[in-house]
Amino acid sequence: MAVEPNRAMRDPVVAYIGLGSNLGDARRTVTEAIGRVAQLDGVRLLARSRLYMSAPVDAIGPDFINAVIAVETSLNAMDLLAALQQVELQAGRQRPYRNAPRTLDLDLLLYGSASIRAVGLSVPHPRMFERAFVLLPLREIAPERVTDAQLAGVADQAIAALPDR
User: Fold this and answer.
1) Residue 119 sits in a domain of what CATH number?
2) For the chain, percent of residues with pLDDT exceeding 70
3) Would 6 be classed as within a structural domain?
């Protein structure tokens, strides 16, 4: 179903958000970002994956800490993206160049069943099915969203679930 990205939503939509960090205290940054997203107006946290450590894909720098969360939101996709970008900025996110190491990266992976192609936003996220650091945590919280074949396609990528602390 195609959706206008700026259309105000009346009914809540379930969205999936990927989180990643590879600068500073990445584990703490991702954990705190989950809390910040959960506190956004019009957003309710439904589920969160464990934290994972993964090698950078198409990027440089130290290993990433990653997670995926499911939220219920009354925000339209563009407003949700703008709110996520504010959380990134609050965490000190800078964008000096494409795929630079980052204090925090929040990606809107899925927005209900919508297919969105707009300036600055593509949903489903265009590279999510190429990345183990998205697919493994997404499958943990929404197994119906990730197939065995999709997981097999990223089986060569280094990733490990982290123990809870």
Assistant:
1) 3.30.70.560
2) 88
3) no
